[in-house]
Amino acid sequence: MTTYLAFLRAINLGPTRMFPKDDIRRVVEETGFEDVATHINTGNVRFTSAMRSRARIEGRLEAAFQADRGFDVPTIVFTAREFADLAAEAVALSSPEYVRHYVYLLKDEPSATVRDAVEATSSERGDMIVRGRAVHALLRPGYQDGVVDPLGAAKLLGTATNRNLNVVKTLADKWCAA
């Protein structure tokens, strides 16, 4: 059995897209996955499965979420090992010059052209660094706090969701320990 982490996009953002973590856990269990756990109410779920295809797992979860909620819930899945590596890289990229660090988790790895376009949005406000299916938004003081996409890169990423560095480290420590 392999341990997976799934990240749900665009839930709990208003009255029409509510999906509490206890309901997420229930749906994932009903879908046949095991050892299901959730963390905070932003769509973070861990489970185990004998399935090996990330695309099939994402598809199965998305279909189950749609059936339960009545709206699309894009879902991005990593193995625990992939996520542990992603978290370690995020920690290594951190620096005191940055006041915020968000990690965009992508369904698909961007092409070289998209990667270059994303990284080209870097400015005095911060840096965008692409590493596989993770994109790091490293923001400097004065980046416009409260702006969802201060560097204008998120629109280039395709299906993605983000978590702050603290959540990424917490999940790696909690769910990816060997």
Question: Care to count the β-strands?
Answer: 8
> How many domains make up the 3D coordinates?
2
- Low-pLDDT parts are none
Write down the CATH topology of the largest domain: Alpha-Beta Plaits
Residues in helices, as a percent range: 25-40%
Count helical runs: 5
Give the overall average pLDDT. Answer: 94
Q: Give the distance, in angstroms, between the N- and C-terminal Cα atoms.
A: 14 Å
**SS class:** alpha+beta
Rg: 16 Å
- Hey, roughly how much beta strand do the residues contain? 25-35%
Order of helices and strands: EHEEHEHEHEEEH
Which class of the largest domain in CATH terms? Alpha Beta
- Principal-axis shape: globular
CATH architecture of the largest domain: 2-Layer Sandwich
What characterizes the major β-sheet?
4 strands, antiparallel
Strand numbers in spatial order across the main sheet: 2-3-1-4
Features:
4-stranded antiparallel β-sheet, 2 domains, Alpha-Beta Plaits, single chain, alpha+beta, 5 helices, about 180 residues
